[in-house]
Amino acid sequence: MFDFDIELARRYGVFASYHSHACPSIIEHYGENPATEVDRLLNHYATAESTVLEIGSGAGQTLCDLAPKVKQIWGLDSNEELLGATRLRAERLSVTNAIYLLAASNDPEATKSLPDATFDLVLSRRGPKFSENLLRTLRKTTIFVQEVVSNLDGYPLGEILGRRYLTPFAGTDQEVLLHEYANLGIFPVSCKEYFYEEFFRDREHLASFLTQVAAMLSPWLLPQSLPHKPYDPVQDQDALDLYVRYNTTEKGIRVLRQRKIFVLRRTEITS
């Protein structure tokens, strides 16, 4: 961790792939680790001739790790502070083949400087989905590696805190994503699902995690126009107490986590 990472780790924590005081004290994967699988897939598909686009590059950990293995890599993120950390990390690690763009992936105006027909590998590590306005930037056989935080992540924490409807959605997040991508000519190669558990020492430890990782209570399936309420230590006190009451184990307070990892490919459909 570099000097510029210290404050970012305190504020963003695992949201930006940092280790911090709010990280769980125990993580039980019971087999494969989804983060290890994403690394394996990127190492498999990235070559010395690859031009890569990372959507939601965050503080640049993955970008800087992948950069020496590829021809060129672009980092796209809408958080100016995290993108600044990516630049600093790349400088400290002597990365010279990276280009950075401050933009939301679904903003055509902000992403217009991205080159046409360029990227043969696109990745999103718990970041935004691919948007239609980026189609012009792809080559004909582009590969996608996408990790998503799925709709059972944290269940039933979001439900008890009043952020999500009770019970899972009738249409799963996987069906929604694959349907949207199929309409763009992007089709699945593989879909892997992971459940694991995290444990927190006590109520205060879990509360600090929810404060730091506000996205935990904002499921990605909901429209962006809906208000996403971060954890409120006053208003959410009783609800969190109820969750703690029924989810305390010998290892600590249990939180269910879920990830899905997709490999997809672009293909042209002709009639």
Automatic annotation (TrEMBL):
<dbReference type="Pfam" id="PF13649">
    <property type="entry name" value="Methyltransf_25"/>
</dbReference>
<feature type="domain" description="Methyltransferase">
    <location>
        <begin position="52"/>
        <end position="126"/>
    </location>
</feature>
<dbReference type="InterPro" id="IPR041698">
    <property type="entry name" value="Methyltransf_25"/>
</dbReference>
<protein>
    <recommendedName>
        <fullName>Methyltransferase domain-containing protein</fullName>
    </recommendedName>
</protein>
<dbReference type="InterPro" id="IPR029063">
    <property type="entry name" value="SAM-dependent_MTases_sf"/>
</dbReference>
